[in-house]
Amino acid sequence: MRPDAEMPFFFGDDAGLFGMYHAPALPARRAVLMCPPLGQDLIRCHRLYRQLAQALAGQGLAVLRFDYHGTGDSAGGSAEVDWNRCVADTVTATAELRLRAGVDRVVVFGARLGGSIALAAAERARFSEVIAWDPVLEGDEYVSALDAMQAALREDADRFTRPRSHADVAEQWLGFNIGDGLRHQLSELSLRGADVPTLVLDSLPPSAGSRWDRIVSSRGTVAAIAPPTPWNDLRRLEAAILSQPLIQAVSGRLKETA
Amino acid sequence: MMREEAHRFGRGRHLVGIAGLADVAAGDTGVIVINAGLVHRIGPFRLHVELTRQLNAAGYPTLRFDLSTLGDSTATGGGQTRTQQVCADLDDAMNLLKSRAGCERFVLVGLCSGAQNAHIVAATDPRVSGAVFLDGYAYRTLGYKLRHYLPRIVDPGRWARLLRRRAGGGGDGLPKPPSEPIFAVAPAPREEVIADFTGMVARGMKLYLVYSGGISNYFNHARQFRECFGKVMSHPAVTTRYLAETDHTYILTGDRARLLDGIGGWLAHNFPPAAAGRHA
Q1: What is the residue extent of each domain of chain A?
Q2: I need a surface site. Which of A83, B7, B146, B154 has the fewest CB within 10 A?
């Protein structure tokens, strides 16, 4: 790897957003913005995001990874994470990527809530395509799942020598303080499709209905990825999410549409 | 006020880290935070971000960074052993923080494998004047075994459960799936570790060992510090703390806040910002 092919930097208002720019060897014709998920999923996906960014940069694409306000290395405390701010930060990051790469066409990739944020920001950011991996469409289900995992965490004998009090685990999700604002925003979340080509990469356990219909009905497709990704397994909470099939699916898609 | 800078640095420009610089005039001690396990530089549940920012606010320059091959850092490809690589990476990190904040002396902070790596460098580099070891080296002592097994042996309920299982009447018959080991400290000979600690305090280093209930499979009481490492644990330069309730990676935000306050208090006592580093 060229030593400066991956450059860390801060950008945005007050230089509060952290970014990692992956520059291709030759001038790019397209760029990819990578929207991270939130909470512990962000940490679990860090290595996979880096691997995917390197693979795409190797294909000649300019790539930007970044952290929203209140997440990762960006400014702000974890309790300050706000849905609208995440969407706005995605728009800011897209502008930064266009500037750095010198291109207008930007594809966005996001896992879980990162995919949801990408879909929500698609029109404002003028993405040419959205690639969403197991995006969260119904926020209330997601909130319920996190609440259930947090309740189970309280008496997780693999982690604590004795159960913790309800007060000890209150107002947190799996290691992170959450404000009432974000809980409310996610509870109200019900995503529709964006008016751009959309590829959903599905590695969730099989379900009865067609969960992705509403976001791929007009301009989208769904591709399955195996094996299922253990997003909500408390025993693997601190294990990295790695997936070679995911990298192949995204890089293959971007070769197809080059 | 403080500000953070993103850096690609090191002998091969292979390391990535975030320097946190206090705007107020600081002392000459900087704090460097090392990866915990395979988690990138932000730390488990953002522990390292919260720690470095809290220390910046107290006037300490900081650096949280990724060691070679971890997080966003790459390998140098120099054919070094892992120990040599860790020492060289920390040398690069100390040079960076010196160039950005004028630090001459350093306190290293590491959790689990991070504590092990901090230990390696603290034992050999004279610029290191303090270290915070979170769930670092430990050994199952006789005291550990007595505390662990005796209550089980004399617990009639445990015997009853065991007999029911033997008779096929207890549980669902399915083995409990094991948790995946994510964090681990590789063992080192106890005599070597004791000699390292003794050497560290002899040259004026201050040590803070904080062990959690999350490593109860080999550490289960405050007394075990002395059982493991002997009289050096009673040296005035050594502070120990056992947090029985807490898990290994401080997943609960209240536990994390208490840990950070403890580290901040220990630093303020041993390395007050205005005179930091001048004790040795």
Answers
A1: 6-137+192-256
A2: B154
Q: Which of B32, B35, B47 is nearest to B97 (CA)?
A: B32
Type and span of the H or E element at A112: none
Contact between A73 and B6 using a beta-carbon 8 Å cutoff:
yes
CA dihedral sign of residues A111, A112, A117, A118:
positive
Report all structural domains of chain B as residue ranges with CATH numbers, in order of start.
Answer: 2-137+188-275 (3.40.50.1820), 140-174 (no CATH)
Q: Find the helix or strand (DSSP H, E) in which A185 lies.
A: helix A180-187
pLDDT 10s digits, A145-196: 999 999 999 999 999 999 999 999 999 999 999 988 999 999 999 998 888 9
Do A235 and B42 make contact, defined as CB atoms within 8 angstroms?
no
Per-residue pLDDT of B151-200, as tens digits, reads 888 888 878 888 887 776 544 444 554 444 456 667 789 999 999 999 99
User: Across the strands, what pairs with A227?
Assistant: none
List CB contacts (< 8 A) between B8 and chain A. Answer: 3-4, 6-8
Q: Which residue of A has its CA nearest to B219?
A: A161
CA distance A126 to A103: 12
Q: How far is B18 from chain A (nearest CA, A)?
A: 8
Contact B6 A1 (CB under 8 A): no
Which tokens go with B55?
């220390």
Positive or negative: CA dihedral B78, B84, B87, B91: negative
Q: Which helix (H) or strand (E) holds B238?
A: strand B238-243
Say yes or no: domain A6-137+192-256 is CATH 1.10.101.10. no
Q: Which residue has the tokens 């002396």?
A: B105
Q: What pLDDT, in 10s, does the model give residues A42-88?
A: 999 999 999 999 999 999 999 999 999 999 999 999 999 999 999 99
Report the alpha-carbon distance of residue A223 to residue A200 in Å, rounded.
6
Q: Which of B8, B18, B35, B45 to mutate to test the interface with A (most CBs of A within 10 A)?
A: B45
**Does A175 contact B at CB distance below 8 Å?**
yes
Contact between B25 and B60 under an 8 Å Cβ cutoff? The reply is no
Chain A: closest CA distance from residue B131 (Å): 23
**pTM of this structure:** 0.93
CA distance B50 to B45: 9
Peptide bond into A163 cis (omega under 30): no
Give the distance from residue B236's alpha carbon to the nearest chain A alpha carbon, in angstroms.
Answer: 30
